[in-house]
Amino acid sequence: MSHDPLSDVLRSVRLRGAVFYYVSFGGDWAAETPASQDLARALMPGADHVLAYHLLAKGEGWAACNGQPPVRLAAGDIVMFPRGDPHVISSAPGLHATEDHSDWRYTTRNDPKPIDVAFHRGVLRPGAPGPADEASSVVVCSFVACDMLPFNPLIGALPHQLHLRGGELGPWTVQLLDQAVAESRERRAGSAAVLERASEFVFVDAARRYLDTLPADAAGWFAALRDRHVGRAIALLHERPAHAWSVEELGHAVGLSRSALHERFVELAGQSPMQYLTNWRMQLGAGLLRQRQAKVAAVALEVGYESEAAFARAFKRLMGQPPAAWRRAQAD
């Protein structure tokens, strides 16, 4: 495959990781993370979606979200919740944290990261340096934001809960995160940027590893990328989004009949090739509108629409606003 749709999507959805907590635990413990929309309001106002992952830096623990079996964590493991589900990490399965009505996530939003958090007798105490050396378990909690609109096929293609065992990770993944956290704790110049990039990298590496381990009978966007014919079709749509594609021409390019490609594409990607193309054009168009002050007509032409009106109609169907109004709202 000459083109790389996964990289295209990762770039276009604006991954940004900026919030870290370094939590020390002792005794029996449980810490809960709310759903994505609540995290966004507290940590990253304006973000469409916030996903969480936790690195168990020391000790043992368990993690689970609603509807998923708990997974046991060993030192060096990462557990990720790509879809933003509320979840719990704990010293034993089935434990839940004491209900927390404080606003500490809001009040510490702009504090230098990572924020030390001590867990003592069921209470999370942000800003109180925990006895990391004496703690039975230490967890590094990271939160990454991304755009969901107009089109983000990545998040829905990932599982609700993704367990990455330390021995299965790239040899430099945990080392990179450990080094970034250590550097940030020393408050060195530029450490916040290092931590952000490391956080984003861990998510990207997790997505790639999930793609590599998909079972043969899987469906979804990752399975579509891996499929010989549909993956090539998606790569062509990404490579030449402004081209006036037809399903017949696309099928010919990948070695399938029009009907066979349509059926296979819908089976794996959950939408037709032309629906996918429209969605990807809207994603590209939104990026162009956000990045520069080009006229809407010029953006429309660049992503494959012969008229501004046609682009505006398609854009409004997905975003609820015409392109010009949406761009003004992004600048506010």
Report what the structure shows.
The chain is α+β, with helices and mostly antiparallel strands. The chain folds into 2 domains: 5-212, Jelly Rolls; 222-331, Arc Repressor Mutant, subunit A. The protein is built from 14 helices and 11 strands. The chain has a 7-stranded mixed sheet with strand order 9-8-1-10-3-6-11. It has a 4-stranded antiparallel sheet with strand order 2-7-4-5, with no helix packed on it. Strand 4 (60-65) and strand 5 form a beta hairpin. Helix 5 (173-185) runs antiparallel to helix 6 and helix 8 (228-239) packs parallel to helix 11 (273-291). The protein is globular, with a radius of gyration of 22 Å.
Task: Give a nutshell description of this structure.
The protein is an alpha+beta fold and 332 residues long.
Strands, helices and their partners?
Blueprint: H1 5-12, E1 16-25, E2 30-33, H2 36-43, E3 49-58, E4 60-65, E5 71-74, E6 78-81, E7 87-90, H3 104-107, E8 115-120, E9 123-126, E10 137-146, H4 153-157, E11 162-164, H5 173-185, H6 191-212, H7 221-226, H8 228-239, H9 247-254, H10 258-269, H11 273-291, H12 296-302, H13 308-319, H14 323-331
Helix pairs in contact: 5-6, 8-9, 8-11, 9-10, 11-13, 12-13
